[in-house]
Design brief:
By secondary structure, the protein is mostly helical. It has one domain. It has helices at residues 2-26, 31-39, 43-68, 77-93, 98-110, 114-142, 144-153, 155-165, 168-192, 198-212, 214-217, 221-245, 254-265, 278-289, 294-327.
């Protein structure tokens, strides 16, 4: 019961953050005007974006399957896709919880050790981050002026970054200290076999390392890279295609979209459900830099784009969560 209360408390906190930030992004908005802008949307572009988004999620599932193969597992594609969709659903409730949830799902239905699958997920994230850092560098080199204008127009962001700078050495020191302390604590526990956990800890560490370094044993590295670039390209299209759905944003270029895509993605780093509020605020402000009015166009775009993506995760995640027991009723995996 205590765990349930803690989980509920976390959800309330994160949703409160999201709702508060969403309010800041839309305060003073005349919603009748916003609704008129939304009604003018060309929904064919939105539908195309939804379809591509689902294909991208399936690509992520297949990529995960490629990483699990060298470990001796061949999970069903539907189980992988279900795990990915439920991951997004979980992130909407508690940010950053989805990766653990999807490893738990695949452990339950495919009997793949949690620590092994978590190791592959970390490698996945490193690959995605590498692509995103490349895109960030491209944006910095080609659109540095736009970024400076954005920061100048939003001095509160700069002041927060500057106030955060003085804490960076402390944070780094604490993280290193905790890592070192944790390493020696685990090492001591394994050596002394405290509470008979020695062998279990060894097994978890071994499985985790195997998961992280699975890419070194992967025979289909080119397929892995192709999926990685395709997934990130789909994320980009999920921002570009909705621009075509609004008459006021259809003139946004591919290069400008890349800038908005990269910078708005950093908004999701803030711990709010699925970037609610933070993504809206940053996207609206970035669009204003490119001459798009905040009210109603920018706000309508952010509302619709974020809204249909969340709706996809809600419907897809809940549906697959309910269907998983049925799909796997008579399924016997190879483990």
């Amino acid at each position: 019961m205590n765990k349930k209360i803690k989980s509920a408390f976390k959800i309330i906190i994160f949703f409160s953050i999201g709702i508060g930030l969403f309010y800041l992004a839309y305060r003073g908005q005349d919603f009748s005007v916003l609704w008129q802008e939304i009604k003018s949307v060309q929904w064919s572009w939105i539908i195309l974006s939804i379809i591509l988004g689902i294909i991208g999620h399936y690509s992520r599932a297949l990529r995960w399957g490629l990483m699990l193969e060298p470990l001796g597992y061949k999970p069903k594609s539907i189980n992988l896709l279900s795990s990915v969709m439920i991951m997004y659903l979980s992130n909407m409730a508690i940010p950053r919880s989805g990766e653990f949830v999807r490893c738990g799902i695949i452990n339950r239905y495919e009997k793949i050790p949690f620590s092994q699958s978590l190791g592959t997920v970390i490698t996945e994230r490193i690959a995605d981050m590498s692509v995103f850092l490349i895109l960030t560098v491209i944006v910095l080199l080609t659109q540095g002026g736009v970024i400076m204008n954005f920061l100048n127009d939003n001095p509160q962001i700069m002041s927060r970054l500057e106030s955060f700078e003085k804490y960076i050495p402390i944070i780094i020191t604490v993280c290193i200290g905790l890592a070192v302390a944790g390493f020696f604590a685990v090492k001591y526990a394994v050596k002394k076999n405290i509470f008979s956990l020695g062998e279990k800890i060894k097994s978890v560490i071994k499985n985790f390392k195997e998961g992280v370094f699975t890419i070194l044993k992967m025979k289909k590295k080119w397929q892995f890279l192709a999926h990685t670039f395709f997934i990130n390209f789909v994320y980009y299209l999920d921002m570009y295609l909705p621009f075509k759905a609004f008459s006021c944003t259809e003139g946004i270029s591919a290069q400008d979209t890349l800038t908005i895509f990269v910078l708005s993605t950093y908004g999701v780093v803030v711990p709010s459900p699925g970037g609610m509020g933070t993504w809206h605020f940053i996207t609206i402000e970035l669009l204003a830099l490119f001459g798009i009015s905040r009210d109603p166009c920018g706000r309508a775009y952010a509302f619709v784009t974020h809204g249909y993506q969340d709706l996809t995760f809600l419907i897809g995640g809940f549906l697959l969560l309910l269907l998983l027991p049925v799909i796997n009723k008579n399924y016997k995996n190879a483990a």
